Structure formats: structure tokens, C-alpha cells
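# nightly structure sweep
# worker-07 picked up a monomer target from the shared queue
# config: single-sequence mode, recycle default, output format = C-alpha cells
# input follows
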Amino acid sequence: MCATCDDTIHSIAIGTLRISDIGAVLRHETTYDSLHPAGRALVRMIRDRQVDAGADGIDLTIDFLAAGESWSELDADGNVVIRNPQPEPR
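# output follows
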């Protein structure tokens, strides 16, 4: 098990970390700095997962096409592919 996980479990066991405190920080009702270090680690983990989940649903293809812009993506092999390339200005 990881050191952060051990610290978090220990903090819950001795009562220095309360789930309600984590929720208050996530709802912006109190500050991140007010948390025990194990609580801060949990908040970081939760926020990272929220960001990852939100980014998965973003598709800017229509926006770029409407603006007449090109964009780059990685293909399955990790190579850069330019989509909707624009002609070079003369």
C-alpha cells in the first residue's frame, strides 16, 4: 500500500480526518489549507479524477471547423496528425 494511503487510513482511524471536512473543501465552504495533510491528498485525488472525467467529454472539432482553424491530435501510435490543414498564406 502507498505511504499516502497509509497516512490517510491512520488519520481516519485516529479521528484527524473527517469526510465532512473533505466535502466542505470540495464545496468551497472552507480552505484546502485547513485540512490535515492526508485530507489534502484525498482532495487532490478527487479533483484529479474530476478533471480527467471532464476532459474525456470535450470535443472541440465543431468549434475549430466553424472557426476555420486547424488542430493537432495524436493518432493511435502517438504520432501528431494535423486536422483541417489550412493553405499557407502567399
